[in-house]
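Lecture notes, unit on protein representations.

Consider one protein chain, 441 amino acids long.
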Amino acid sequence: MKPGITLKLFLAILAASATAAAAMAVASRLSFQSGFLGYLNQVEAQRLDALTARLADEYRRSGNWSFLQGDYARLRELAAPAQPIQRLALLDAERRTVVGNPDLTEEQVVRPVVVDDRTVGWIARSPYRRLTSAADLSFQQEQQRAVLLIAGFALALAAVIALVLARAFLQPIRRVADATHRLAAGDYATRVAIGSRDELGRLAEDFNRLAEALARNEELRRRFMADVSHELRTPIAVLRAGLEALEDGVRPLTRESVASLQGEVAALGKLVEDLYQLALADVGALSYRKERIDIAAVLEQSVEPFAARLAERRLSLERKFDAGVKVMADGDRLAQAFRNLLENSARYTDAGGRLRISTGRANGRVAIDFEDSAPGVPADTLPHLFERFYRVEGSRSRANGGAGLGLAIVRSVVEAHGGAIEAGASPLGGVRVTITLPVAA
């Protein structure tokens, strides 16, 4: 069984703490040894200063060093009867050995013996390089044991803290992991509580946004499938009923009956073609051959086929195009989008109404407005007009035909050109659709 991330994090924190505790123990031991030897040498140096004063008094009474010649015990007695100084050497004024070790090194501490402002000798002492006294060694061992006990206690405390921190750090991750499992199982209502604003909090926020996106996509998928099946069922049911009527002789086989069936076939074919176009746009397979084109020319080309239909419904058309505005686009795809918008206006605008198409340029972009007269749509439905199969109940409803895919195709085409599209209320009383596209350099 592989170790979990909690154990790994616990071991990592514990290893770091153990390394720090071991380093502190070694450093404390070395520092104590060095500091303790320095302390002993400093004490000895102070006692050496006191010895020079006593030696000066003895020399003043004797007049020379004959009273100490070869008598090392006497020198130690003068140094400190209770705590004699070790490793002493007495030299005369010419640095000849009077008593003690005659070999001087650079490490030795040397003090002059001054009598009546005249240096009459030198007292030298070798410094401590290691502990030799039983008391000193015992004190050192006690300190080392104390350091080891402190290091052990610190390590145990670090283990407890590491365990607490590992669980505290991983608790949010564990919650996200559990929620991910539920999300993968299809529970799109799963959410993670956000308990902080750090990286873990941002991870929880990202997870919640992902869950919301998946829930929205699942809802759109279900609605899309339901809408597609409904839209396909209607023309197929009409065709079946018509064919059965012809077969049973209820309806005579005339040019009008065939034309009626042909109309349903055309509607079904347009629905299938719209679905195909949207599917290509979703997978990025919708081909675009972009070039510099005049947006006014594309609009004129798109409006021309609708002249007769608009006249039939007594819809007046107003055009105001800025000449010479170039965009980098696929003219055929843009014309398809413009025709879809014109189709919507021609289908839904009340007879005798108005349709106005205008362009304007600002900040390196061109805005194309399609505005029509009544009827309008409720303000709360405007953001949904470009969703697939979305149709407004009321005047602009399924009764007027269409599957609700035209505006979705328009949005796909506009966004593929780096543009944006939005809907709003028209000053003419209907709907205004504004398309903005980047102007070609």
